[in-house]
Each structure stands twice: as C-alpha cells, then as structure tokens.
Amino acid sequence: MINVYAKRWMIKTSLKNLNVDTGVNLIRYIQNNKVIRIAGRLVDEPRVLLCCYAIRHQPRTILSLDVFDYYLRYKARKLLEVLEALQKKYSLGCFVLFQLRFMKFKEYFNSWKQKDMLKLCVPMVHEYWELNALKEKYMHLKDDYMVIHEQQEMVVHRLRRINRNVDALLEKYKDNAPTLEETIANSFYERWIRDVYDDLNQQNYARVVPLIKDIRDMINELVPNNTEYQENVIRKLDVDLLQGMIDNTHIEGAYVFNMIMFVMQTIVELQSADMDQDTRMVIALLEDMFKKQFSYAQILTFFFQSAFQKLELIRKRKLDFLNSLSK
User: Fold this and answer.
1) How confident is the model at residue 241 (pLDDT cuts 50, 70, 90)?
2) 199 with 271, same domain?
C-alpha cells in the first residue's frame, strides 16, 4: 500500500514539475536532462513524450506536408490534451488513458521516424554511389582519388549518425540512384504538391476536377480492353457532379469520401500484392482523417499524392512486364 501511495505521489509531483516552455527555447528545454528525468517518471520513453511539444508548438521545424506528418501532429495534440488534463486534476482513469494514448503515439512515432529517416538517408546514399563512380574514374590520379574518397567517408559518417546499419542501406540503394530526369521530376512533383495544398487551403478548388479526370484516365488506361470496367469508373467518378458542387460552393463530404474510397479500392484491385499493406494503411489514414474532420486541403492533398504515386507505379510495372514479354 505504501508503494502505491509513493508511486501516486511521484506521478503527481512529476506532473506538477513538467512545465514545458513552449516558446523560442522549446527545443533546448526538452533536451535538458532534468526535464527528461521528470518525463521519465511518467513514461518509459521520455524523449518521445517531449517530442510531442515540438511537434505541436513548432511543427514547421520538423514536419512537412506529408500526411504522416499531419497525422503525427494530430496524435501529439491529443496526447498532450490528456496530459494537460492530468496536470490540472489527477485521476487514475485519466492516467490510464494517458498511458494508452502514449503507447499508440509511440508506435506511430517510431513508424514515422523510420519513414523520416529514409527521406534523409536516401539522398546521401545516392551521393555516396555517385562519388564511388567518380572515384573509379580517377583511380589513376592518387590525389584526386583520395579527395573523393574522403568526401565519401564524410557521407558515411553522416549516415551513421542517423542509421546504424549503413552497409545494408548502401547495398539496398546501390542500383537505385535516380537519373537527372527523375531528380528534376521529383523536384517539380514536390513543388506541385505544395501548390495544390496552398490552393486547397485557400478554398480554391479549381485543380480538383482536372486531377480527378487525370486519375480516371490513368485507371482506364490500365484496363484498355475492359469497356464495362471503364464505364463504371466514369460513372463513379462523376466529374460533372463534382464540378457542380464546386461551382455552388457546396461540396458534400459523403460524396468526396465515397469518391476517394472508390479510387483507393480500385488501386487495390489493380496493384500487385506487395503494395497491399502500404495502400491499406493509406486507406485507413484517409478514413480516420474524414472521421477526425481534417480539412479538405489536408485530405485531398494526401489523396492526390498517394493515388498518383501508386497509379504511376502500377503503370510502370505493367510496361516493364509487357516489355519483358517482347524480348
């Protein structure tokens, strides 16, 4: 019984002492060892909990327009709301809810961190292999060779600060370096996604119908000999109805939801099995975004981003398969 009271006293004291400065010194504050020790009395991974404050109060420093970042911010806000309620009035039920939400947040945070790590690592891996090709070209020039080798080692050093298993990462992306054309295309794509989001965020929906038409056409190109399938796609993606809603500034959430779910389920039908897990995760996120009433800017940006990437991958794989048959 004494241990129970002692633990409750420790939790209450820690809640009282966890006064996080959410101003300009936030990042420095949450890295303070004393603050980490206090948070460590509440959860098993205090740094993850403290990251919630940075995600909520300074999102632009660590987040992008990616939906996984939106979702992380939402989960961080919900977790901190429970924590703040606990700080105002402690109750066992509220503390249990906080622990449950933290466990779910931690699981998602680790998944997000893995994706974010790859976004940082992959460009460096490509740089490593570009330097390696250059090094082979200058093998006969010792001084130049050593300079390039030192640059390569610096890339490896930067990678080790983010990912311990550098050798496996280098091997995985050895033959997957993007061409100049792909690099330029990716740059334009990222800018395009940001422009789409900016327009939607200002309730400018002029891009929506043309993009839905593009998706419709990409789907139908994948089934060129199935007229019935194509007609069903055209019927389900009724762009005239959607345009009328936009013109009348009355967009029905149920119609947008059904349209998006139809596209995503169609992608599931057309894709290969190895894509299923990722696509079903995207569908689950979209469903949750509607449920949690995310803005149309957030939902549609993520939807277009996901749909075009997946349809393009399906198209590329189909072309590769057809090309292999013709050889």
Assistant:
1) very high
2) yes
Burial of 220 (0-12, 13-18, 19+ CB in 10 A): middle
Do 124 and 110 share a structural domain?
Answer: no
> What per-residue confidence (pLDDT) applies to 179?
52
Query: Per the structure, how many domains does the chain have?
Result: 3
> Which among 129, 131, 128 has a CA at the least distance from the CA of 159?
128
Count of CB atoms situated within 10 Å of the CB of 82: 17
Q: Quote the pLDDT of residue 181.
A: 47
* Residues 156 and 36 both lie in one domain: no
Which of 237, 295, 296 minimizes the C-alpha distance to 265?
A: 237
**32-41, 161-170, 235-244, 266-275: range with lowest mean pLDDT:** 161-170
* Averaged confidence pLDDT in the chain: 82
User: Given pLDDT bands bounded at 50, 70 and 90, which one contains residue 63?
Assistant: low
Which domain, by its residues, includes 143?
119-172
